[in-house]
Design a protein that fits this description.
elongated, alpha/beta, 2 domains, 6 strands, 434 Repressor (Amino-terminal Domain), 275 residues, Endonuclease, Chain A, 12% strand
């Protein structure tokens, strides 16, 4: 049998296939055997390895399970599917779906986990108009956001703490109709038993510790990860020595921000003044 040579540098999809073949061959497994372990046909395995078929999330998780690779193939799949996203974010999103606590600070726009589809679509379409992304990538962004939001709808949902800079509410996105629906979404979010929504008013001035969006995840083993995002790059950090100071700063931000009751009242009042 002729074995097709793989060029992992030709495309992300080819790199995924080459990685799968490498891990399979390291174990001395044939495609038939891996197929049985993953509950896929050997033809399907071959098609992914040679780049003829795009892997799916289910396929990637099955590969991790069969090959004992942790979440390696799931992370590669997210990087492959969501290449338009900033570096580090696909890995962050994979952890987000398993986190027991999520802490978010956002500036300028409503945090993604709280966005309505219409609000998210306006932002994506605006990026297309600026030439920053393609229409296909815009659709991918909105779809990916929906996946992240759906991952939180589980039997034991995580605690979600959100602090929004006042600018998130003052900035009008998509016009009154879109904003009215978005404000309603924020109010409903705040009413859930596993959430906390706070506004960091402009009046806290220099006491606001962050100048960039910050995302903190606590996993079931109580480890904490931090993702910080700038305009052109993102960075996921799992080192305790550097993450814990960010967590402390987040708690300080919460102390300076409005309570949830006052935040909800302020959101409603702010929209009255800008609608």
């Amino acid at each position: 049998m002729n074995i097709k040579e793989l060029n992992p540098d030709s495309s992300p999809q080819a790199a995924f296939g080459a990685l799968l073949r490498t891990h399979r061959e390291e174990r001395g497994w044939k495609q038939d055997y891996l197929g049985v372990e993953m509950e896929y046909s050997s033809t399907h395995i071959s098609s992914v390895e040679t780049g003829r078929k795009m892997p799916t999330l289910r396929f990637s998780r099955s590969a991790d399970r069969a090959l004992g690779t942790g979440d390696l193939f799931e992370r590669r799949w997210r990087e492959l599917k969501h290449g338009v996203l900033l570096e580090g974010f696909p890995e962050y999103a994979g952890l987000e779906g398993r986190a027991t606590e999520i802490r978010v600070f956002e500036i300028g726009i409503v945090p993604g986990l709280l966005q309505t589809p219409e609000y998210a679509r306006v932002l994506a379409d605006s990026a297309v108009e600026r030439g920053a992304i393609t229409p296909e990538q815009a659709t991918e962004r909105v779809s990916f956001l929906a996946e992240r939001q759906a991952a939180l709808e589980r039997s034991r949902p995580p605690m979600v703490f959100v602090v929004m800079d006042e600018s998130c509410v003052l900035r009008s996105v998509g016009g009154p109709e879109v904003m009215d629906a978005q404000i309603e979404r924020l109010i409903k979010f705040a009413a859930q038993p596993n959430t906390m929504l706070q506004v960091a008013p402009f009046s806290i001035g220099e006491r606001r510790p962050f100048d960039l969006p910050v995302y903190l995840l606590t996993l079931s083993d109580r480890s904490v990860s931090c993702y910080v995002e700038a305009q052109t790059q993102g960075r996921l950090d799992r080192e305790t020595t550097s993450v814990l100071p960010v967590l402390t700063a987040y708690h300080q931000l919460q102390a300076e921000s409005l309570s949830q009751a006052l935040s909800v009242a302020a959101i409603k009042q702010l929209r009255k003044g800008t609608s």
